[in-house]
């Protein structure tokens, strides 16, 4: 076990845990944003640089600070490590810079984008970005690429997080798509416009943090915050799919089916394309009840609890710290109503 | 006349063949190392020599070798980085073209020291003709028993392969190089783990520049202490400098570290001064990625001391008034040079070569290039100049690999020292964009 101090809060985690996951155990507003890191995908992370934090003491043994900001998603904790995130101005400034970089070539077409409301980039920009741009040049655009009847690839919105590439690599037996080109001309593609045809290909939609990969059966049907999420399951016969999903209702209609996501938008159990695209009747499913949306995003408005610190952690804190936290919270408690 | 350790015989007829190279004392270090020294003794000599990485970062080579993890029963690799593609740097190409056996000799001795049984030379894709030269030389070395099974009856075996890249600058970054060598897309890896622990095929690996490896035979032959006598302080030995730009005698020079920059530029033994009798305006001392310095600061440090060709002297003053020795790509610019145009040109290169993996570099390099393009063509505003500094700062230090810094430093330094020239482009666009126009005002020195 390693004990680290994150933004002044102590937390004990198993050796080998990344700083980001240690912060997630604390929870709340101090958790660094992650645009490319995705826990279930091996090798993901380190690319978007959104989660950069300051390590002001490397470990108990060697308390020197790390010279550069480090990507918290891939840096593992050391016992006695002291990490600064929201309390460090440099980190906040750099994060603002990262938002700007990610947005300069982003089309900002949220009003017509299906991902709006549950978009990581939208959340990230809302929280850390500025409302104006210094970018005067023409934005990079791509032609739409046809990768089959179920998934829409819209490269112009892509932030090149590589999540879908890892998903395809690790989830499906054949790799059919990857990153082509270099620099700001790099794009996700299937080379000679191959169709992605695989029973688990639909999961790339769920892992995409932006609207670059969207569900063709749901495109332009409804804004996500007007749909009602309901947890459901079915006996799926597909190997490796356990049929545990979230159905998104509008009235009586199931508009789309997705895998269940946790508070950080991560899917823990992948689902097959049959569940995702073919089973759109309530009669196909055993309903479990309304899905809990713990993400602090537009989608969570109206049915939304406050992001809270893990109560166990609060209990373990000395009383003086708790009082200090209440008076001057590092996390923004509550939604827009507060 | 300085000593020539690497290039002493470079102009001998047929030195690229095994026989001639051998006649001129070639492969002595292999014999000496394999027959009379243990691998650790070889490493110790390299440590004593104070040899620093010649690829740009200047990290002590012996220390790098010392970091190599040596778990039992796991293969280790020595990889030679011959992906030389920094604008202004062209020393390795010459070394490999003319003295292929020197590199091979260094690879054998180095591999022996590190306990590598298979070693690779990763060569830049554009240098296919050099690849053929190397392959021919390797075949000769195999035939002569210096490569392959049981070299010189010592019981040590080594296989050496040359592998061409696809011609991407980013593959000169050591982890991107390893990815590319493994047959993957040349994206730099996140560090840690460092290659010394998990490198090629997730095995402990040392990646060294061509010139670094070529210095190993000399060090083994003459002894590390002897090598360390050349140079000043922590900058020991000789360095190949590829001098280009507005010089009377551009070319590749082997200098003893510690040579004054002024002597290097103006003496007839080296570059012979600025061409056409013009005045020097600025110098990029170590390949396009290091900060540009105006004449006043490249000849003398801010404290008024003579600037020397050493790692320490060139970086005296940090990035405010100093630069870096880098890879030894020495670009001199005369008074007619437009610094804005030059910066734009560098920026265009880094935009083109960014791998696109991490966001600050992918987006920032293109942004800087576009802003510089605007400034150079007379469409910029004063605000753009500050924007450049700000974007450069947003990239620097926040990327996976040093390409971000390599793109940001030249821009930041150009604005720092030649801000008046940038402003002139904004205030007098007609004059500034006229063909052959160049600002003649003073540079900012502090």
TrEMBL record, chain A:
The lineage of its organism: Bacteria, Pseudomonadati, Bacteroidota, Cytophagia, Cytophagales. Residues 2-89 form the 2Fe-2S ferredoxin-type domain. Residues 90-129 form the 4Fe-4S His(Cys)3-ligated-type domain. The keyword Lipid metabolism does not apply. Keywords: 4Fe-4S, Iron, Iron-sulfur, Metal-binding. This is (2Fe-2S)-binding protein. Residues 319-338 are annotated as: Disordered. PROSITE patterns: 2FE2S_FER_2, 4FE4S_HC3.
């Amino acid at each position: 076990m390693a004990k680290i101090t994150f933004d002044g809060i102590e937390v004990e985690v198993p050796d080998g845990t990344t700083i980001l996951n240690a912060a997630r155990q604390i929870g709340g507003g101090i958790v660094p944003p992650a645009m490319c890191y995705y826990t279930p995908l091996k090798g993901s992370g380190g690319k978007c640089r959104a989660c950069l934090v300051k390590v002001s003491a490397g470990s108990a043994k060697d308390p020197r600070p790390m010279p550069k900001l480090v990507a918290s998603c891939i840096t593992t904790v050391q016992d006695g490590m002291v990490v600064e995130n929201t309390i460090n101005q440099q980190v906040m400034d750099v994060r603002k810079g990262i938002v700007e970089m990610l947005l300069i070539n982003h089309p900002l077409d949220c009003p017509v984008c299906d991902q709006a409301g549950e978009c990581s980039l939208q959340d990230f920009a809302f929280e850390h970005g500025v409302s104006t741009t210094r970018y005067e040049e023409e934005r990079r655009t791509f032609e739409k690429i046809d990768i089959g009847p179920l998934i829409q690839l819209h490269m112009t919105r892509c932030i090149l997080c590589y999540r879908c590439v890892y998903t395809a690599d690790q989830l499906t037996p054949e790799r059919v798509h990857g990153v082509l080109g270099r620099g700001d001309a790099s794009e996700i593609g299937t080379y000679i416009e191959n169709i992605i045809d695989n029973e688990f290909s639909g999961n790339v939609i769920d892992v995409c943090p932006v609207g670059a990969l969207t569900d063709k059966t749901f495109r332009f049907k409804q804004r996500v915050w007007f749909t009602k999420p309901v947890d459901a399951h079915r006996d799926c016969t597909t190997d490796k799919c356990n049929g545990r999903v979230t159905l998104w209702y509008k009235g009586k209609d199931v508009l789309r089916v997705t895998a269940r996501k946790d508070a950080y938008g991560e899917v823990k159990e992948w689902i097959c394309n049959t569940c995702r695209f073919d089973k759109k009747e309530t009669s196909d499913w055993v309903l479990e009840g309304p899905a809990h949306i713990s993400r602090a995003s537009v989608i969570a408005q109206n049915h939304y609890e406050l992001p809270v610190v893990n109560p166990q952690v609060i209990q373990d804190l000395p009383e003086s710290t708790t009082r200090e936290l209440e008076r001057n919270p590092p996390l923004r408690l509550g939604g827009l109503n507060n | 006349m300085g000593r020539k350790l690497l290039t002493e015989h470079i102009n001998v007829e047929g030195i690229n063949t095994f026989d001639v190279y051998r006649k001129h004392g070639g492969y002595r270090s292999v014999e000496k190392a394999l027959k009379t020294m243990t691998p650790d003794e070889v490493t110790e000599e390299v440590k004593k020599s104070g040899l620093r990485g010649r690829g740009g970062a200047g990290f002590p080579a012996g220390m790098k070798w010392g970091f190599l993890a040596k778990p039992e029963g796991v293969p280790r690799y020595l990889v030679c980085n011959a992906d030389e593609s920094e604008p202004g740097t062209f020393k390795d190409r010459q070394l490999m073209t003319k003295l292929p056996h020197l590199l091979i000799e260094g690879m054998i001795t180095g591999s022996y020291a590190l306990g590598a049984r298979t070693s690779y030379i990763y060569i830049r894709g554009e240098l296919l003709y050099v690849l053929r030269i190397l392959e021919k030389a390797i075949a000769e070395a195999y035939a002569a028993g210096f490569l392959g099974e049981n070299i010189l009856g010592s019981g040590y075996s080594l296989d050496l392969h040359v592998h061409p890249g696809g011609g991407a600058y980013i593959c000169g970054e050591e982890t991107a190089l390893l990815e590319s060598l493994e047959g993957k897309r040349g994206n730099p890896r996140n560090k840690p783990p460092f290659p010394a622990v998990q490198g090629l095929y997730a095995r402990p690996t040392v990646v060294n520049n061509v010139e670094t490896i070529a210095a190993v035979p000399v060090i083994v032959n003459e002894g590390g202490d002897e090598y360390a006598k050349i140079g000043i302080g922590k900058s020991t030995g000789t360095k190949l400098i590829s001098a280009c730009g507005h010089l009377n005698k551009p070319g590749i020079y082997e200098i003893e570290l510690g040579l004054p920059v002024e002597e290097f530029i103006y003496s007839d033994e080296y570059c012979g001064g600025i061409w056409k009798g013009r005045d020097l305006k600025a110098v990029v001392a170590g390949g396009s990625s290091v900060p540009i310095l105006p004449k006043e600061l490249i000849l003398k440090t801010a404290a008024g001391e003579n600037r020397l060709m050493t790692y320490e002297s060139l970086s005296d003053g940090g990035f405010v008034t100093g630069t870096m020795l880098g890879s030894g790509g020495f670009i001199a610019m005369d008074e007619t040079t437009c610094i804005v145009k030059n910066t734009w040109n560098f920026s265009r290169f880094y935009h083109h070569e960014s791998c696109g993996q991490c966001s600050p570099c992918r987006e920032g390099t293109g942004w800087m290039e576009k802003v510089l393009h605007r400034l150079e063509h007379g469409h910029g505003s004063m605000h753009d100049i500050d924007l450049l500094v700000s974007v450069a700062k947003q990239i620097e230090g926040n990327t996976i690999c040093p390409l971000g810094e390599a793109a940001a430093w030249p821009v930041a330094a150009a604005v720092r020292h030649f801000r008046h020239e940038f402003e002139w482009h904004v205030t007098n666009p007609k004059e500034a964009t006229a063909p052959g126009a160049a600002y003649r005002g003073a540079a900012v020195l502090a």
